[in-house]
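Late entry, evening session. Most of the bench is empty. Finally got around to the prediction I had been postponing all week. Sequence below, unchanged from the version circulated by S.P.
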Amino acid sequence: MVTIGMNYSVLQGKEEVFEGACDKVLTVMGDAEGHDDSQIFRRIDHRDPAEYLIVSRWTDEEAFNSFIASEAFKKVTSWGLKNVLAGRPSHTTYREE
C-alpha cells in the first residue's frame, strides 16, 4: 500500500470551484484500478486558506502513476491550471513499511 499526498494552491475566490472539481475527480478515482481511498483537506489556520491536500491510498505507486497518466486526469489538470490553481500541484509519496 502507498499513500500519495497531492498539494494544491488555489486562486483566491476559486475555492468552491476547485472543491466541486475535486468531488468529481474523487468519484472517478474511486473506480480506478488499485485505488483504495481518497480524502480532501483544506488548510484552516488562515495563513493560506486556499491550500488543499488530497490524501490518496493506492495498492502501489504504479497504480497511482497509471491514473495520473490517464487522459481524464490530464484533462482536469490542464483545466485546473488555466482556471483555478495558483501553480503546479506537488505530490509526495508515503510508503508503508
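Two things to note before I forget:
The chain has one domain: 2-95.
The radius of gyration is 13 Å.
Will write this up properly tomorrow.
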